Amino acid sequence: MNYLIIEDETHNAGLLESLVEKTNPAARLLAVLPTVQESVEWLEANPAPDIVFMDIRLADGLSFEIFSQVKVSSPVVFTTAYDEYALQAFKVYGVAYLLKPIEKEELREALEKVKRLQQKLSGDEVDAIMEMFRTREKTYKSRFLLHYRETYKVIPVEEIDYISLEHKNVYLHLLDGNSIAVPYTLEELDEQLDPQFFFRVNRQYILHINSIDSIHKYFNDKAKIFLKRNRQAEVIVSRIKMPQFKLWLDR
Asked: Buried b vs exposed e over 181-208: b needs ≥16 C-beta within 10 Å?
């Protein structure tokens, strides 16, 4: 069996290769490819392998994009860390998948399924699965458990007024006027908080919609925001961020 691994994490690719060798000692790994682009180029230039193990999220996008750029004529086993909701897409179309961390017995079952069905995905099936992944329900944080002085404190997101980065520390500023440092980056919080209520206006601030008192035009098509509970804060929305900011305000 000749096989291909499309995976952007070297450690995961190594674990999968080891499991395949234990399951099928005669298996031969052809290549490990970390990106959509490299995968497309390899598939265009080489004969189809007997099977392809394909991670969902690669360094340059979702692996589903490979199917729109090159004909994949090999059976595919998807490897993924996605939750059960998203995996319904694979179940609907009878696609073999392995849920990370991958177990030897699950790998054996996936290989048997591929051998039994030899299913190759059609373009319509790939589009449907990709759409289901893109639109799957995302759960945002509803509260934070934080170490506060000598105790632990639970902070519901409804109590957050705004978030700031100050001297390399990130702070939650609360409606009651208190501030508390958190062990997160602004990038992590931006991913975890519901974008219906929170917006990252620049490199220093994430604002709750109700924290804004007024918005004023600023030079070079920027905007200056005055906060309800901190009139001294200099919150500037860059020209690049302005179109997205306006759309967020006008929901």
From this structure: ebebebeebeeebeeebbbbbbebbbbb
Tokens of 61: 């996008």
Q: Are residues 27 and 117 in the same domain?
A: yes
The predicted pLDDT at position 78 comes to: 85
The backbone region for 36, taken as left when phi is positive above 0, alpha when psi lies in -120 to 50, beta otherwise, is alpha
Domain residue limits at 213: 143-249
pTM, two decimal places = 0.51
Decide if pLDDT at 100 tops 90: no
What pLDDT band is residue 173 in, cutting at 50, 70 and 90? very high
In angstroms, the CA 212 to CA 162 distance is 9
- Same domain, residue pair 115 and 183: no
Q: What is the pLDDT of residues 148-169, one digit of tens each?
A: 777 888 999 999 999 999 998 9
Same domain, 162 and 228: yes
The total of other beta-carbon atoms located within 10 Å of residue 176's CB is 8
Sign of the C-alpha dihedral, residues 4, 6, 9, 15? negative
Residue 97: beta bridge partners?
78
Residue 239 and residue 157 in one domain: yes
Whether 130 has a pLDDT exceeding 80, the answer reads no
Same domain, 128 and 151: no
Which of 108, 134, 160 is the last residue before a domain boundary?
134
pLDDT of 85 reads: 44
CATH number at residue 220: 2.40.50.40
Which value, in Å, is the radius of gyration of the alpha carbons in the chain? 24
126 and 147 in a single domain? The answer is: no
